[in-house]
Amino acid sequence: MSIITLIYKLNQFFFFYMFLYAVVFFITTILSAFNLDDFFKRKKHMSQTIINNKGNYIPISILVPAYNEEVTIVDSILSLLNLDYPSFEIVIVNDGSKDKTVETVIDFFKLKKVSKPYRRMVESKEALGIYEGGEGIKIILVDKPNGGKSDALNMGINICSFPTFLCVDADSMLQSDALQRIVEPFLEDDTTVAVGGNIKISNHVAIENGQVLDVETPKKPIVIFQLIEYLRVFLNSRISLNGINGNLIISGAFGLYSKQAVINVGGYTNGLMGEDMEIVMKIHSYYRKNNLAYETSYVPDAICWTQVPEDLQTLKRQRRRWHVGLGQSLKMHKYMFLNPKYGLVGMISFPYFLFFEYITPFLEVIGIVTITLSYFLGVINLNFFLLYLLVYMGYNVVVSMISITIERYMFSATTSTAMTLKLILFSILESFGYRQMMSLFRIGNVFKKKNQWGEMTRKQGKKVTNP
User: Fold this and answer.
1) CA-CA distance, 332 to 327, in Å (whole number)?
2) pLDDT at site 368
3) Side by side, which strands form the sheet with 173-174?
4) Measured between alpha carbons, how far is 385 from 367 in angstroms, rounded to an integer?
5) What is the DSSP letter of 137?
């Protein structure tokens, strides 16, 4: 087979894949619109007797795994203490930090070391020390050797007191009503086992006591591009898959779980890069194998604010880590692929994440290379080359613009007209380099034998200064 024939066949395959990709994203966008409409109608007619009666709320343990988080940990805990929720506790698990995370928390919140027995319901390393304190809201700090985020979460499960637990990152801040909103599926349906919330970027936002005080229009292009990506993910695919009880990812930065459901599947698996996806896939697998009724859900108006990388090196490490985690989870649960036993999760969700999340960056890179070679080798002419690039970039822009429009409609208080216009402009610019760079970042670690988490440099959140 000549190089010309090979390139021609690759182009045919990529054309077909691009068309299928565009169709799938169009369908998920339409489903998202219907599901959002249904969500707001349900909220409007929800039984206020249940939701407004705080006596009905389920006690929640908030688990905060922390590794080298001394810069942001106090602000994060303070934001949690200001949550508008009747009964919760905060469990910080220090996972062998090399900085002063432990000392910072102990000193600021005046915690005291206690002798606290606990049952190891899921596997975790032994605690080096347990500290407690807090007025009204109990704060528990567990110091343990480094074992990774999964081990830290398992320790939190072993220590916490309540039947539901919330996972949040140590650099994240929740809006004051976040717990009230994310717990609603548990109040409506007692078969609910896991609920995800909406992750929004906080680099350009000033937050105090769980309230957004000031929103700037982001200035750094790297932050703006990530804003657009987050909108596409959380306001598109997550909402569409939510309609079929088929979400495979609940972000580790903000997810609420039934403690018993997680214990049933043996807790978080150690040594993985994507523990947040793998735990959800284990839950789907366990409940479907045993023919047990269960529901997972996604609540778009339960808001968690988190920092994103502001430099390319940190962003590269993050995206590679995410992609490796996705691959690990899919590989561990490959038995679900197109398996009717697992219902729509096996027939739709698993193939979606395999073909349109995991494989996509590989094919995007191959497609751009082959179409460019085709032009220079004379397989296609300039008009076709430009038309191909226009179509390739066009559907990305359309999906991004729809997501931006939905964001503007849902969260007008934190999305100004100026920001909306800037996001629309950057959704066009995104296709000229940034998207291709993210594809290269994502596939980079796939060819490495050993993958590491790496660290993200934290910084203090924005403050509002009085004039």
Assistant:
1) 9
2) 82
3) 112-114, 129-133, 139-144, 88-95, 60-66, 164-168, 254-258, 192-201, 295-306, 173-174
4) 12
5) S
Q: How far is CA 312 from CA 309, 425, 440, in A?
A: 8, 21, 12
Please tell me the distance from the alpha carbon of residue 105 to that of residue 72, in angstroms, as a whole number. 11
Q: In this structure, which long-range contacts are made by residues 217-220, counting pairs with CB atoms below 8 Å and at least 24 apart in sequence?
A: 217/416, 217/418, 217/419, 217/422, 218/419, 218/422, 220/310
pLDDT < 50 regions, the chain: 453, 464-467
pLDDT for the residue 464: 45
Measuring CA to CA, which residue among 181, 306, 178, 319 is closest to residue 253?
Answer: 306
Contact in structure between 264 and 282 (CB atoms under 8 Å): no
Give the model's pLDDT for residue 387. Answer: 77
As to burial, measured by CB atoms within 10 angstroms (0-12 exposed, 13-18 middle, 19+ buried), residue 299 is buried
CB atoms within 10 A of CB 120: 13
Handedness of CA 271, 277, 279, 285 (dihedral sign): negative
Locus of tokens 């950057």: 426
Q: How far is CA 234 from the centre of its chain?
A: 8
Q: Please give the pLDDT value at position 460.
A: 55
| Per-residue confidence (pLDDT) for residue 390, from 0 to 100 | 78
Instruction: List the one residue out of 398, 409, 412 whose CA is nearest residue 22.
Output: 398
Closest Cα partner for 256 from 44, 58, 52, 54?
A: 58
Find the angle CA(365)-CA(369)-CA(370) to the nearest 5 degrees: 115
At 265 the pLDDT is 97
Please report the pLDDT score of residue 48 as a whole number.
54
Continuous H helices in 267-416: 275-289, 312-332, 343-344, 350-353, 360-376, 382-410
For position 94, what pLDDT does the model report?
A: 96
What do you get for the CA distance between the two ends of the chain, in Å? 72
Rg for the chain (alpha carbons), in Å?
23
Tokens of 420: 């909306």
Q: What is the pLDDT of residue 380?
A: 77
pLDDT at 180: 93
